[in-house]
Amino acid sequence: MGKEFVKDITAMDVDFAQWYTDVVTKADLIDYSSVRGSMIIRPYGYALWENIKNELDSRIKETGHENVYMPLFIPESLLQKEKDHIEGFAPEVAWVTHGGEEELAERWCVRPTSEVLFCEHYKNIIHSYRDLPKLYNQWANVVRWEKTTRPFLRTLEFLWQEGHTCHATDEEAHEETVRMLDVYADVCENVLAIPVVKGQKTDKEKFAGAKYTYTIESLMHDGKALQSGTSHHLGDGFAKAFGIQFTDKDGALQHVQQTSWGFTTRIIGAMIMVHGDDRGLVIPPKAAPTQVMIVPIAQHKEGVLDYAYELKKTLARVARVDIDGSDKKPGWKFNEYEMKGVPLRLEVGPKDIENNQVVLVRRDTGEKTIVLTDHLEEKITEILKDIQRHLFEKAKALREEKTYMAQNFSELKEIFAEKTGFVKAMWCGDRSCEDQIKEETGATSRCMPFNQEAISTECVCCGKAAKKQVYWAKAY
Amino acid sequence: MGKEFVKDITAMDVDFAQWYTDVVTKADLIDYSSVRGSMIIRPYGYALWENIKNELDSRIKETGHENVYMPLFIPESLLQKEKDHIEGFAPEVAWVTHGGEEELAERWCVRPTSEVLFCEHYKNIIHSYRDLPKLYNQWANVVRWEKTTRPFLRTLEFLWQEGHTCHATDEEAHEETVRMLDVYADVCENVLAIPVVKGQKTDKEKFAGAKYTYTIESLMHDGKALQSGTSHHLGDGFAKAFGIQFTDKDGALQHVQQTSWGFTTRIIGAMIMVHGDDRGLVIPPKAAPTQVMIVPIAQHKEGVLDYAYELKKTLARVARVDIDGSDKKPGWKFNEYEMKGVPLRLEVGPKDIENNQVVLVRRDTGEKTIVLTDHLEEKITEILKDIQRHLFEKAKALREEKTYMAQNFSELKEIFAEKTGFVKAMWCGDRSCEDQIKEETGATSRCMPFNQEAISTECVCCGKAAKKQVYWAKAY
Questions:
Q1: Domain B2-275 class?
Q2: CA B424-B426-B429 angle, 5° bins
């Protein structure tokens, strides 16, 4: 489209952070309020979250999990029961000290995550191996008292689901941890068209209280990484702290093995930064609140609007279709729905009606096709599928382009001095090397990928024998 | 069923409050935790809430509303902007005073309701008559610092939806207030089979900050009333306090007219107390997580379990079906799913398979029918429909039975001394009479029904000229 229609958003290359802020506000995803660090999720942003939520919720249910709801508050003494956990979360919780006029005897925090609440409940309801596994999930809001915040990426309050499960054996808990990471990867790749690297977090980066943490990591357009979902094997640490025991088949008393896993509104930030461009949002069809936006041309002419509304009704059978029948100019509308990342625009005017055709314009490629209305439903289904495929391929290609390899420390530093992206390099396993890399390059270990490549035999930092290949990156 | 299978729950007539507590815990709807006044909503309870939520959410969307999400916290200064509102809510909010280690400059409350957050946002986004109406809804948790709590009925934290809308005229806001009350009544009567009385709250009982409040009131099995949903016309009080103005078609600046309306997890308490009996829960089919529970008989015999699982697959086309294939005795299962209020039990054993039949047992009437499997799908659809209808009729008959009429104060006192239920009586409109009635009978004004009956010309309390007919009752 002509530049004259383009809303004033900063170009990505000029200032990526400002581009992001422009997009989330001007595409009507969020608004700010007087509540520092929190965001208002507006109808378009919330409809997007509802789609993601529905896709994930159905997968969580298909894998045998049940939804529950736990209290918002956690008494301080309960939070303190698991030592690593309280250490990790205490600095970033909000404390309630008064109820009405009365000061509380014990202060309560607003849940930053709900492990301890689930544990207290599990102790009540688990007694025998017959009670296992327990596969619970919760959709909720949580609060972490962040100093610096950005819409979706890091907010004081965010929405998420948190799964919490109990198993009879370490092996079963391990399988669950993998299974749910796979579910997250499936939603990222097949709904949001975001390619991910699956791997394990280092001990430094793992969840407070976990035995180990699995993660999916994605790469944004600016070459920074974003942790997109985590799945934790909690071992029996919480079970021992809370006394969650069961009688096994042989009559022996054992502690359960637990997992937890979470996926948040943050993923919307990832989607924006993976697919967006200088004209605004680009939403993959499977997540898009509106997949096809009908824009009537010369709508004041007799029959055009009626025809367009009829078309909407017909197409609603195969896609989420909307129509803008307002009296704004077509050019304004084109720009607005490009800004909002609607995958496909359908233009229809008097000449199209006469010729029994419509014009389809793809948001991802800008490609324009004239399609006969006889085959419209099939054609639209086909194009939406192709957009979904194309966005994934494009994101994958960009990730490959921005993925580097370093054999030694000078190479690693050179790459991070000049570029941003994933750097694959070997690691000896020592925390000190991890710290030094962070200090000298600003990059953190994103994960030890499941798919290990033997890049060299030496740690990229200290030169000692390497234990693991790691993806390093600057991250959100 | 034989008494030997019945779990130990208190009979309704012995102690209704204890019966209620027994049912919510033994039917696995909730569990308690160390968080005073809050509840854990267990899988069965949450699945019930999800069904209610889905039914209501689709109606909210069909009437043109959009879902959004507002922050959990409200800074004290923002809450204070509307005077009546803060007076109503300040005594019952939870205050956050610390974030991490740091003490806040201004304390934040945990939202008890979100009018002020919506108002702040509306001021940002509404400028012209073209921006109206704004029809927003939010699904969220809210907190009210209650001293005495009971699962579902009154909890420190509860789940709800809250609608918040802006309109150009008083008349449009009025229509919206009525429309959403009708939506609530529809969900109550046609999903939950709870008959309701629609009416207006007196000024004493209206929402803090509203011009007027409409309500639906239902009657529990013990004759106490329960407010089941409210819809408020807020007038322009909030709009003036927050400066929400728009330019009308003639170019004049006007304040918007607003509404808000809410429906909560409380309704689950109503459903329990309207339909439940001494054997436990009775859930209307449209709300039931499981509508048909298959209990295999002599399931150790070859082919029985396979047959039952096949049946489950077939019936899933017409109903939410589950199966209990565990090695517990059929009698235990019968009792368990009666306790849980599953509308229909399907028994199938070797003899039934031989005869190409199954046994259906209704939870509401206990009626047993032998049905040929050829017609099973139609038959089940038909019976579920009949259960839904029957529960509503039964509840309505009970309400009629417990609805009385009083002409004067001695009659009113006599009724409330001997009975519990709705009492229809006339009122002069004075707060002092309302207060006196409460003091001397324990009953409050539930509503001034839309459907006014002229019972007499005099106020039931003071004898002065009557203005309105009121439903009075002791209430939850």
A1: alpha beta
A2: 130
* pLDDT over 60 at A139, yes or no: yes
Helix (H, G, I), strand (E, B) or coil at A248: coil
Tokens of A370: 């004239």
Q: What is the mean pLDDT of chain B?
A: 96
| Residue whose structure tokens are 């200290």 | A462
Instruction: Tell me which residue of B55, B46, B52, B209 sits closest to B119, measured CA to CA.
Output: B209
Question: Which of B228, B232, B288 lies closest to B264 in space, CA to CA?
Answer: B228
Which chain A residues contact residue B103 at CB under 8 A? none
Q: Do A33 and B140 touch (CB under 8 A)?
A: no
Question: Would you say the ipTM is above 0.85?
Answer: yes
Contact status, residue A185 vs residue A196, Cβ threshold 8 Å: yes
- How many residues does this entry show for chain A? 476
Q: Convert B291-317 to b/e letters by CB count within 10 Å (16 or more is b).
A: bbbbbbbebeeeebeebbeebbeebee
> Would you state the pLDDT for residue A282?
98
User: CA-to-CA distance for A427 and A429, rounded, in angstroms?
Assistant: 6
Cis preceding-peptide flag for B133 (omega within 30 of 0): yes
> Quick count: other Cβ atoms within 10 Å of Cβ A400?
12
B residues 134-153 closer than 8 Å to A (CB)? 136, 140-141, 143, 145
Q: Name the A residues in 3-32 with CB < 8 Å from any B CB.
A: 31
Residues of chain B with Cβ-Cβ distance to A92 below 8 Å are 100
pLDDT of residue B1: 39
Q: Is residue A159 within 8 angstroms of chain B, CB to CB? A: yes
Distance from CA of A451 to the nearest CA of B (A): 37
pTM score of the predicted model:
0.96
- State the Cα–Cα distance between residues A151 and A271, nearest whole angstrom: 13
Domain locations along chain A? 2-275, 292-384, 403-473
Does domain B403-473 fall into CATH 3.30.110.30?
yes
Q: Which residue has the tokens 């009333």?
A: B225
Q: How much is the pLDDT for A86? A: 84
Q: With beta carbons less than 8 A apart as the criterion, state whether B112 and B91 touch.
A: no
**Which of A347, A353, A306 minimizes the C-alpha distance to A329?**
A347
Q: Which single residue is written with the structure tokens 């259906």?
A: B360
Q: Are A437 and A472 in contact (CB under 8 A)?
A: yes
CATH (residue range A292-384) = 3.40.50.800
- pLDDT, tens digit, 9 for 90 and up, residues B106-156: 999 999 999 999 999 999 999 999 999 999 999 999 999 999 999 999 999
- Contact A96/B93, CB-based, under 8 Å? no
Which residues, in sequence order, are CB contacts of A145 under 8 Å at separation 6+?
Answer: A91, A92, A93, A94, A156, B99, B100
pLDDT in tens, A349-391: 999 999 999 999 999 999 999 999 999 999 999 999 999 999 9
Please tell me the predicted confidence (pLDDT) of residue A3.
Answer: 44
Cα–Cα distances in angstroms (integers) from residue A176 to residues A37, A44, A165, A179, A452, in the given order: 34, 34, 8, 5, 21
Which one of B52, B69, B74, B157 makes the best mutation probe of the A interface by having the most chain A beta carbons within 10 Å? Answer: B69
pLDDT of residue B348: 97
pLDDT at A85: 82
User: Is residue A229 predicted with pLDDT exceeding 70?
Assistant: yes
Q: For B120, how many CA atoms within 13 A lie in the half-sphere containing its CB? A: 20
